[in-house]
Design a protein that fits this description.
- By secondary structure, this protein is mainly alpha-helical.
- It has two domains: 65 residues, no CATH class; 414 residues, no CATH class.
- It is built from 15 helices and eight strands.
- The longest helix has 52 residues.
Length: 519
C-alpha cells in the first residue's frame, strides 16, 4: 500500500514527482511518512545545492576563459601598438653596403619624383607667367596670379562665402593650401636647387647633389640668384655682393675693408662646410662620394635664402615632421624669435642649434657618428651671430622712416592696399610696421578646413603655432609660408582671405598684393 496517495495527501505531491525519477524506491519499514518526506526534501536540497555549485563553477570557468582570452588579445594589441611606435632615434649601426644603397635608391628615384611632381601639378599651375611690372631687388620678375587650383565646380567667391565647417564637410579646401610634403617625405633631409649645386661645385668643387632626389619647385618661383647683400653698417654701399655668390674662395676679397676682423671670421665660419645628416663622410649619406658637408650659407645664400628645403627636426614620428623652406637672414637684428616653431631666443642660440641639432634631424647620437662640429660659444658662435646681425632688408623707396607708405611716392592701388592691411584685412595685427612682424607666434588653425589625411608619406593634420616672419622685402622671398605651399603673393592673399574669413573683393585682393610688393 502506498504511503502517499496523492489525492489524499497533496502536500506530498512534490515528493511523489521526485520519486518517479528513482528506480522503484522502497520505503524502510521503520520510517513514518513524515520522516521519509523530511529525508527526501533534505536530499533534494543537497542535490539542488550541488547542481547550483556545478553551474556556478561552470560559469566561473567560462568567465575565466573569457578573461584569459581578453588578456591575450589586449597583450597582442599592446604588442602591435608597441611595434608600430617607431623610436625617436635613427638607427646608428648600419651595415648596408653604400654601393647597394646608391643602386637601390637611384632605381627608385624616377618613381619617387614622378609621384611628387604629379602632386605639384595637381595642386598648382606651374607655368612661367612673370609679372610685367614687378621685379625682385636685382631685377628677376615676380611670378603673378593665383596658382593654386580649385576643386572642380568651385570658385574663390563661393569658398569665401562658406564656413570652415562646410568646406571641411564637403572636402573642397584647395589642395594647394594643405601642408606641402617633402619630395620623399619618409626620407627627408636637406635638398638644394640645381643652380645652387652647380655654382658651388664650380666655385669650390664641392658637390651638393643627392643621388636619391632632385629639388621640386621650378626655378622661376624661387628667389633671384645670387641675391644682393645689404649691410646695416654700410647702407651707403647698397648691394655689396658685386653680383657674386659669396663663398670661401671670394669672401675675403669682397669684404676685407668693409667688415671688422671678428665679422670676417664669423663670415668665414658661416661659409665653412661641416658634416650633416645627408652630406658626410660615413656610409650613411646621400651623396655618391664622401662629402665635406654643408655650410650655413649654402641654404642662406648671401645672407638671404635660396629656399633649400628640409624637414624640421623637432617632431616625431617622421610623417608628422613639417617641411621647412629656408628663411631669409635679412633683418635678424630686429627679430626676437628664431626658427619657425622652435622659438629660440637669440641668433647665437639659433646658430649653435643648427650645428648641434638641425644638421642631424635633432638626433645628437647620429650627430656624434657623422662628425658634429661643436662651435665654441664665446668666440665662434658670437662671431657668426655678429655678422648675421648686420644683414639688412632691401631698400624700399616708397616707405617713410616709420615703414609706412609715403603718399607722395605710392600709387593709389598701394595706398588702398595699405589701408586694407591695417583695416579690413587685419594683417597689421600680426605684421605691424615698420618691419611687419610682432615677433610672436600664432596658430592659424588651418585644420578647421580639412580632415587629417596622409599625403605622399606626410600626415597633414595641424601646423601649430608658427613664427610671424617679417614682411619687409617679402617680394624677394617666394614661395611663401613656412613650407613654401604658396607660390605667389596672390596665392598668399587668397589663403589668408579664406583662412581669416575676410571676404575681400577681387579689387581689394589686387590692392593688397600691390602694397606687399612695395614693402
Amino acid at each position: 500500500m502506498s504511503i502517499w496517495p496523492p489525492t489524499k495527501q497533496p502536500h506530498f505531491e512534490y515528493a511523489a514527482r521526485l520519486s518517479t525519477r528513482l528506480a522503484e524506491p522502497r520505503v524502510p519499514a521503520d520510517l513514518s511518512a513524515g520522516n521519509f518526506f523530511s529525508q527526501v526534501v533534505s536530499t533534494h536540497i543537497k542535490t539542488e545545492e550541488s547542481m547550483q555549485l556545478k553551474v556556478l563553477k561552470r560559469r566561473w570557468f567560462v568567465l575565466g576563459c573569457f578573461g584569459v582570452v581578453a588578456v591575450v588579445l589586449l597583450g597582442m594589441v599592446f604588442a602591435q601598438e608597441t611595434e608600430k611606435r617607431t623610436s625617436s632615434y635613427a638607427p646608428v649601426n648600419l651595415n648596408d653596403d653604400i654601393a647597394v644603397t646608391i643602386s637601390h635608391m637611384k632605381a627608385a628615384k624616377p618613381d619617387v619624383m614622378k609621384r611628387h611632381l604629379d602632386l605639384l601639378n595637381a595642386r598648382y599651375d606651374l607655368s612661367n607667367r612673370p609679372a610685367a611690372d614687378a621685379t625682385m631687388s636685382r631685377g628677376k620678375p615676380l611670378q603673378e596670379g593665383v596658382r593654386v587650383r580649385l576643386t572642380k565646380g568651385t570658385t574663390w567667391e563661393q569658398l569665401a562665402a562658406m564656413t570652415p565647417e562646410e568646406i571641411k564637410q564637403k572636402d573642397i579646401f584647395p589642395a594647394g593650401f594643405l601642408p606641402l610634403p617633402f619630395p620623399n617625405h619618409p626620407e627627408g633631409g636637406m635638398l638644394f636647387p640645381q643652380y645652387v649645386i652647380d655654382e658651388i661645385k664650380r666655385l669650390e668643387g664641392r658637390d651638393l647633389t643627392r643621388f636619391d632626389l632632385d629639388f621640386d619647385i621650378p626655378d622661376h618661383f624661387l628667389p633671384e640668384f645670387p641675391p644682393p647683400i645689404y649691410l646695416t653698417t654700410r647702407t651707403d654701399l647698397g648691394d655689396v655682393s658685386q653680383g657674386k655668390l659669396v663663398n670661401l674662395t671670394n669672401y675675403y676679397e669682397i669684404f676685407n675693408g668693409i667688415l671688422n676682423p671678428k665679422q670676417l671670421e664669423g663670415l668665414r665660419l658661416l661659409l665653412t662646410p661641416f658634416p650633416q645628416q645627408q652630406f658626410n663622410a660615413t656610409a650613411d649619406r646621400r651623396t655618391e662620394r664622401p662629402s665635406q658637408g654643408v655650410a650655413c650659407l649654402d641654404c642662406h645664400v648671401n645672407g638671404h635664402t635660396d629656399r633649400a628645403t628640409h624637414l624640421v627636426g623637432d617632431i616625431r614620428p617622421q610623417e608628422f615632421r613639417h617641411r621647412i623652406n629656408t628663411p631669409s637672414l635679412r633683418g635678424v637684428n630686429i627679430q626676437r624669435l628664431f626658427g619657425s616653431q622652435r622659438a629660440l631666443k637669440s641668433v647665437e642660440d639659433f646658430t649653435e642649434f643648427e650645428q648641434r641639432a638641425a644638421y642631424f634631424d635633432g638626433d645628437p647620437v647620429i650627430a656624434t657618428k657623422k662628425g658634429v662640429n661643436i662651435l665654441e660659444r664665446g668666440s665662434q658662435v658670437h662671431f657668426m651671430a655678429e655678422f648675421q646681425e648686420l644683414l639688412d632688408f632691401p631698400p624700399a623707396p616708397k616707405l617713410n622712416i616709420h615703414g609706412q607708405l609715403d603718399p607722395k611716392k605710392a600709387n593709389q592701388a598701394e595706398l588702398r592696399g595699405e589701408a586694407l592691411f591695417v583695416g579690413k584685412a587685419g594683417c597689421a595685427a600680426c605684421h605691424p610696421a615698420p618691419y611687419y612682424t610682432d615677433n610672436l607666434m600664432h596658430n592659424m588653425q588651418v585644420e578647421r578646413f580639412y580632415k587629417p589625411r596622409m599625403i605622399n608619406g606626410m600626415m597633414a593634420s595641424q601646423d601649430g603655432p608658427i613664427k610671424t616672419f617679417p614682411l619687409r622685402g617679402v617680394k624677394d622671398s617666394p614661395p611663401y609660408l613656412h613650407d613654401g605651399r604658396l607660390l605667389t603673393l596672390e596665392d598668399t592673399v587668397e589663403f589668408f582671405n579664406l583662412v581669416d574669413e575676410l571676404k575681400l573683393t577681387p579689387q581689394e585682393k589686387k590692392d593688397l598684393v600691390a602694397f606687399l610688393r612695395a614693402l
